[in-house]
UniProtKB/TrEMBL annotation:
<dbReference type="GO" id="GO:0046872">
    <property type="term" value="F:metal ion binding"/>
</dbReference>
<keyword id="KW-0119">Carbohydrate metabolism</keyword>
<feature type="binding site">
    <location>
        <position position="177"/>
    </location>
    <ligand>
        <name>a divalent metal cation</name>
    </ligand>
</feature>
<dbReference type="InterPro" id="IPR011060">
    <property type="entry name" value="RibuloseP-bd_barrel"/>
</dbReference>
<dbReference type="Pfam" id="PF00834">
    <property type="entry name" value="Ribul_P_3_epim"/>
</dbReference>
<dbReference type="GO" id="GO:0019323">
    <property type="term" value="P:pentose catabolic process"/>
</dbReference>
<dbReference type="GO" id="GO:0005737">
    <property type="term" value="C:cytoplasm"/>
</dbReference>
<feature type="binding site">
    <location>
        <position position="9"/>
    </location>
    <ligand>
        <name>substrate</name>
    </ligand>
</feature>
<feature type="active site" description="Proton acceptor">
    <location>
        <position position="36"/>
    </location>
</feature>
<comment type="function">
    <text>Catalyzes the reversible epimerization of D-ribulose 5-phosphate to D-xylulose 5-phosphate.</text>
</comment>
<feature type="binding site">
    <location>
        <position position="36"/>
    </location>
    <ligand>
        <name>a divalent metal cation</name>
    </ligand>
</feature>
<protein>
    <recommendedName>
        <fullName>Ribulose-phosphate 3-epimerase</fullName>
        <ecNumber>5.1.3.1</ecNumber>
    </recommendedName>
</protein>
<feature type="active site" description="Proton donor">
    <location>
        <position position="177"/>
    </location>
</feature>
<feature type="binding site">
    <location>
        <position position="179"/>
    </location>
    <ligand>
        <name>substrate</name>
    </ligand>
</feature>
<feature type="binding site">
    <location>
        <begin position="177"/>
        <end position="179"/>
    </location>
    <ligand>
        <name>substrate</name>
    </ligand>
</feature>
<dbReference type="GO" id="GO:0004750">
    <property type="term" value="F:D-ribulose-phosphate 3-epimerase activity"/>
</dbReference>
<keyword id="KW-0413">Isomerase</keyword>
Length: 221
């Protein structure tokens, strides 16, 4: 695994013009669309569901849609997102009773699967399910809101996750989510991360997404 991937989080996009915002950021060179799903239960915020994912596909978005579930329970929404056109689905191990089963369910639905680790969640569970994981997503903020500050301890966790992934010899992406910007993306990449979610640094609420912001993030790597 080598190429870097930029996955703009549409959480910071202008939802009234979502299709246009996504088109703009993809035209600027972004690779994936990061799709944050919040349920006002697992996290204290409420966002978007499968209908919006389906709407983006119908709008003509062909890029991978990276669904980040911040919901509890996890399993019952997985088939709906698969049908709505999700490419990958990641969830937090704390939010499901049976981590292995939820990972398998995602793959059975034809999507790539992933686990998301909150800042204070250890990586322990990973080694027991590593053969069912395509993405390891490290939260570098506490989940629930865009625009928070990057938690520096995540860099050490990224180095540890990189070691675990390399030792496994598997084709697994190491993704980071929260507070990523042009100033810190270089050191995050140096810690072994290959996939970068960025919301507020790429989208401005109520403004056109600015291609130069994307360019500055990529150039900083
Ligand atoms: C937080 C979300 C993130 C967040 C990223 O719970 O998972 O995807 O919106 O936004 P920024 O880049 O603004 O931290
Ligand atoms: Zn996210």
């Amino acid at each position: 695994m080598s190429d870097y991937i930029i996955a703009p989080s549409i959480l910071s996009a202008d939802f009234a013009r979502l299709g246009e915002e996504v088109d703009n950021v993809l035209k600027s060179g972004a690779d994936w669309v990061h799709f944050d799903v919040m349920d006002n239960h697992y996290v204290p915020n409420l966002t978007i569901g499968p209908l919006v994912c389906d709407a983006l596909r119908k709008h003509g978005v062909t890029a991978p849609i990276d669904v980040h579930l911040m919901v509890k329970p996890v399993d019952r929404i997985i088939p709906d997102f698969a049908k709505a056109g999700a490419t990958s689905i990641t969830f937090h191990p704390e939010a499901t009773e049976h981590v292995d089963r939820s990972l398998q369910l995602i793959r059975d639905q034809g999507c790539q699967s992933g686990l998301v680790f909150n800042p204070a969640t250890p990586l322990d569970v990973l080694e027991w399910v590593i053969d069912k994981v395509d993405i390891v997503l490290l939260m570098s903020v506490n989940p629930g809101f865009g625009g928070q500050k990057f938690i520096p301890a995540t860099l050490e966790k990224a180095r540890q996750a990189r070691e675990i992934i390399d030792r496994s010899g598997r084709d697994i992406r190491l993704e980071i989510d929260g507070g990523v910007n042009a100033d810190n993306i270089g050191e995050i990449a140096a810690a072994g991360v290959d996939t970068f979610v960025s919301g507020s640094a790429l989208f401005g609420k109520g403004q056109d997404s600015d291609p130069n912001r994307y360019d500055s993030i990529v150039k900083a790597m």
